[in-house]
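Q: Could you predict the 3D structure of Beta-xylosidase?
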Amino acid sequence: MEKIPKPHKPIVDHIYTADPSAHVFEGKIYIYPSHDLDHDGPSNDNGDQYAMEDYHVLSMEDFNSPCIDHGEALHVKDVPWAKKQMWAPDAAYKNDTYYLFFPAKDKDDIFRIGVATSSNPSGPFTPQESYIPGSFSIDPAVLVDDDNRSYIYFGGLWGGQLEKWQTETFTPDAEGPAANEPALGPIVAELSDDMLTFKEEPHEISIIDEDGNPILAGDEDRRFFEGAWVHKYNDYYYLSYSTGTTHTIAYAMSKNPKGPFVYKGKILEPVIGWTTHHSIVQFKDKWYLFYHDCSLSNGINHKRSVKYTELTYNNDGTIQTIDPYK
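A: Sure. Here are the predicted structure tokens for Beta-xylosidase:
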């Protein structure tokens, strides 16, 4: 029986890491986090304090093994179209290739989603010349389904610019819906077979309550803010996400990877720090939640550290809420 380290211990402490996307590749656990830098830039609702420039790939043989930092896998200077802010990434494996999906601001300060490829899960990754056509906002997460079809989920409010894409063009001064209107949901698109373009027009996911009513923008305990992640368990698709202003990880369930998803509850109570961002992965016969907090930096919001803990399902498929400090 593998023992799980105490949940308050970061998996690495020599660099600051956040937004962990965890996968099992080649029988090992690979984690694709963002890399927080220490700097003196401004802190604001646009997220300028999150000035990340590169990605490191982490891996563990199992949960009794040390976590290995494989070094720099991709840097913004090597991405032809990108200007700055290499935020939360994800990875996927298909076509005998490892794909790294990442957001960054283009030369016009508009967030786009890029793709880089490698023959090795630890990188280094070679970026495509341009971002995915039609991509926008942040926080890509990719699900390769059992039928080998692939879906990308993305979007984030405020600094993630999702509100500015309510029409088909970028509107710099656009605001989100009123409190009594349906909240903006994350975006989904099926990916082409080569994983480099959208196979269809991206569209918004609907998150609804048990009665079929949309979650409203003013319902900050339940509405989507950023950090979507989709995984599959017992024929259900689970959409989990950060609520942002109320600092929890919430989740909703569906029989369809494109939704609509029915809100079910909270997975993770608030952590130290403003942001919360996670992934869910199965390793052998157990499920794990990877997340971050700012305990290592004593609460400095742009100096975060990746952690993990075991995740437990109830008999009806719902997920037990986790207190990160118990």
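Q: Anything worth pointing out?
A: The two ends are 21 Å apart (CA to CA).
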